[in-house]
Each structure stands twice: as C-alpha cells, then as structure tokens.
Amino acid sequence: PILYSYFRSSCSWRVRIALALKGISYDLVPVNLIKDGGQQFSAEFKALNPMQQVPALKIDGITLSQSLAIINYLEDTRPNPRLLPQDPKKRAQVRMIADHIVSGIQPLQNLSVLKQMGDKKMEWAQTCITSGFQALEQILQHTAGRYCVGDEVSMADLCLVPQVANAERFKVDMSPYPTITRINKALLELEAFKISHPSRQPDTPAELRA
Fold first, then answer.
1. Is 191 buried (19+), middle (13-18) or exposed (0-12) by CB count in 10 A?
2. φ and ψ at 209, to 5 degrees?
3. Among 87, 183, 180, 71, CA closest to 132
4. What is the pLDDT of residues 83-116, one digit of tens each?
5. What CATH number does the domain located at 88-193 have?
6. What NCBIfam families does the entry give (predicted)?
7. Closest CA to 159 of 4, 1, 3, 16
8. To which CATH superfamily is domain 2-80 assigned?
9. How many beta carbons lie within 10 A of that of residue 128, not counting itself?
C-alpha cells in the first residue's frame, strides 16, 4: 500500500491510525499542502485524487480517497482488530460520532476554508470547533466508556484525536470538555496513536518533531 499524506492533515492522521492499529505496513508519499502553492494541486496528484485532498491510499489495485471510505474498506478487508462494533446500536453511535467530526467540524476549519477567512482565521476555527465540541461533549456523556463508545477503540476515536489536536492548534479552551479531554488522553497512550502522530512523520519539519 502507498499512503499519500501530509503530516498535519487530520484526515490523513485518521488513516495512519487505522493502518497502525491493523498492522498494515505501507509506503508514505508526503504531499505538502503549503509548499509550491500546495502540492495537492499538481496535475500528477489531481490524476490520483480529483478532489485534490489528502489522504489517498493505493491498496489492492485500487486508489481510495476520503478517510472514512478508506477506513471502512480496511475494516471490510482486514477486520482485525475491529474498528466498528458488532452491536448495531453501538455501530450506529460510532458512525454518528465519526460523522459529527468529519462532516460537522473538520471541513469548516480546514485549510481551504481558512484561506477564505483572511484575518479571522483563528476566530473562525475556534467558533466552528467550539460549537461542534459542545454537542460532542454531550453525546459522549451517553456513549463513552474508556473511549468514545464503550471500552473498545473504534472509528470514532480515530476521528476524535486528530480533531482535538486541531482544537489545541487553534488555541480552543478545552476546560468545558472533560469527557473529550479524558478520552483523548487515554487514546494518546496507545502505540498506534503515538506512531501515527503528526510530530513523528517522515515529512514533519524538524522544529515540530517529537
């Protein structure tokens, strides 16, 4: 497998966690979203992913984009360890939390949107993340065990950790979100989350390395 990734991309991080958890080795091709006006806009990368976004994963003779589509494919083809619970209600809760983050928070504060915001980048990102986290904190109070849904790591957790990292980058006050904070801390202790961390990627700038 070949993963096209950017160290700081939260969508790429989700997939890196999934690959790590499932023990899938891969080659990483960095796509720098800032350099050269954004390497994702090159003709070569557009041919690979017409949406001109990371991640993209070449695997089993196909090329997939969109982090949840990639994670779902890995789940279908390499089911151990499981990232979607067998119980239909828990499975629905995992998908709900994942969608809440990947549709309701992350796209509103990603690079392409922030470029449009001029001087209000920080303020805009904080507003989007805060409103999303207020809802997420309430949801997690009903679903969480050690992790987002019960005590098993799921697709929801793969979405949560990168989004908390975004919140910290945009200086969001995390004190109103004790459940999110507690789950994030527990997940960051797991090896798959450590090795996939933005501070430990081949394309991480020296000053941001762990």
1. exposed
2. -75, 145
3. 180
4. 999 999 999 999 999 999 999 999 888 888 888 9
5. 1.20.1050.10
6. maiA
7. 16
8. Glutaredoxin (3.40.30.10)
9. 23
